[in-house]
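User: Design a sequence. Structure:
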């Protein structure tokens, strides 16, 4: 073993011994879990049709609420209502994905997320 506590010829992983590396990995794992838990408690909202449809989604991508204005309900044009709901739900889910990416991006682990 080298004097730095690492493997011979490896310089102790750039001066860091294996115990320190493991300690950092455990801290990072705990930080990631905390970020994921915090994200799950957040709600993301989206609207469509000028506010005629609104959707709230939790950070775990569960739909919490859908509100539909009576003005947009037309029995002769159900397809428009369906399209507005799909657009609104997809936009809310996209907001969750962006928040997840931003949350995980702070850990600077290229290729992981």
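Assistant: Done.
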């Amino acid at each position: 073993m080298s004097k730095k506590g690492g493997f011979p010829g490896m310089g102790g992983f750039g001066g860091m011994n294996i115990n320190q590396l493991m300690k950092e990995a455990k801290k990072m794992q705990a930080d990631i879990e905390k970020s994921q838990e915090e994200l799950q408690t957040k709600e993301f909202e989206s609207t469509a049709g000028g506010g005629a449809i609104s959707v709230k989604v939790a950070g775990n991508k569960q739909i919490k609420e859908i509100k539909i204005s009576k003005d947009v309900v037309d029995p002769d044009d159900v397809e428009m209502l369906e399209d507005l709901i799909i657009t609104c739900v997809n936009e809310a889910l996209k907001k969750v994905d962006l928040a997840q990416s931003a949350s995980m991006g702070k850990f600077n682990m290229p290729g992981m997320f």
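The CA atoms of residues 6 and 16 lie 7 Å apart. The chain is about 50% helix and 15% strand.
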